[in-house]
Amino acid sequence: MKKLVLALVISGFVLAGCKQTPNEEPEFERQVQIQFAVGSLANSKLKSAGTVTEDAITEIILYGLDATGNVVRIIDGVTLSTTSLNVSSRVTAFWAIANPTPTMKSATPATSSVLEGWTRDYSLSLPDSPFTMSGIASIASNTATIVLVRSIAKIAVAGAEGFNIAIESIEVKNARTSGYVFPQVSLPAATGSDLDDFLERSDEVYVAENDDTPATATSLTVTGTYASSPFSVDIDMKISGSLIPIERNKFYTVTLEPSDPVDPWTFVITIKNWDDVDLGTVYF
């Protein structure tokens, strides 16, 4: 009888050792249906492989993250035409970067904190390569929609209708020379070095995000001619007298109008999403 009891105790320990804890569930792959939402970007522009435009997307890298923010897998070879992926059961969210730099493509981030800290250098001039865009989406019922947005802003300057105003140059002050790839909640704007840059005969500039701290807020000096006479006007980015931050994927339009006398000038700043027409979700 004692031997039988001892045998039962031993087998009990063996069985207990074979049980899986809740955190040791086997990993498996599941298929996730995926779509990219790109607001008002037209398919023809997005899929353009030729001339670089501000809307072009040539490549996407996708990161799968688990519930604790660890990068489970880097998914390569994703394109706008990708509609489904086999991913680890541990993946609960996707983080995507469109038009990644070579450094991003070769890096192996371990956590979401690493991805959050990634920055990219930007130029104020027209793009010589596609703009970096990013998007984050959770996976619900094996589906995910990733909204891709540019990580920079655009500022355009124009004369008011009915006035003979020609813009010759825009000097951007306190423009950040680098910006975060993914949106930030609490981190300050990526510093880089403050930049004063003349853009001759240009009416649009592309800038990284910046906050509205008075000492470092983005501002402009615009020069040109009005009625064949030269002018120069300093413009603080203000609405209703208050400085405004420069936010990603926003389009800021500065409209100049001469007053009488010409100095000082008046100007109006309007803000909208970068794209004029919202086409909603675009399926590829």
- Alpha-beta classification: mainly beta
CATH class of the largest domain: Mainly Beta
- Our Rg estimate from Cα atoms comes to 26 Å
* Overall pLDDT confidence: 76
* Percent helix range: 10-25%
- State the end-to-end distance: 72 Å
What is the correct CATH architecture of the largest domain? Sandwich
Kindly describe this structure:
This protein has 284 residues and is mostly beta strands. It folds into 2 domains: 28-152, Immunoglobulin-like (Sandwich); 153-273, Immunoglobulin-like, CATH 2.60.40. It has helices at residues 2-18, 43-46, 102-106, 112-116, and strands at 29-37, 60-65, 71-78, 84-88, 93-98, 119-121, 133-138, 143-147, 149-150, 152-159, 165-175, 178-180, 195-200, 204-208, 219-226, 229-236, 238-239, 242-243, 250-258, 265-273. It has a 5-stranded antiparallel beta sheet, with no helix packed on it. A 4-stranded mixed beta sheet has the order 14-10-19-20, with no helix packed on it. The longest helix has 17 residues, at 2-18. The protein is elongated and about 75 Å long. Residues 1-22, 40-50 and 277-284 have low confidence and may be disordered.
Question: In summary, what is this structure?
Answer:
With 284 residues, this protein is mostly beta strands.
Any key phrases for this structure?
single chain; 284 residues; mainly beta; Immunoglobulin-like; four-stranded mixed beta sheet; 20 strands; disordered C terminus
Topology, pairings included?
Elements: H1 2-18, E1 29-37, H2 43-46, E2 60-65, E3 71-78, E4 84-88, E5 93-98, H3 102-106, H4 112-116, E6 119-121, E7 133-138, E8 143-147, E9 149-150, E10 152-159, E11 165-175, E12 178-180, E13 195-200, E14 204-208, E15 219-226, E16 229-236, E17 238-239, E18 242-243, E19 250-258, E20 265-273
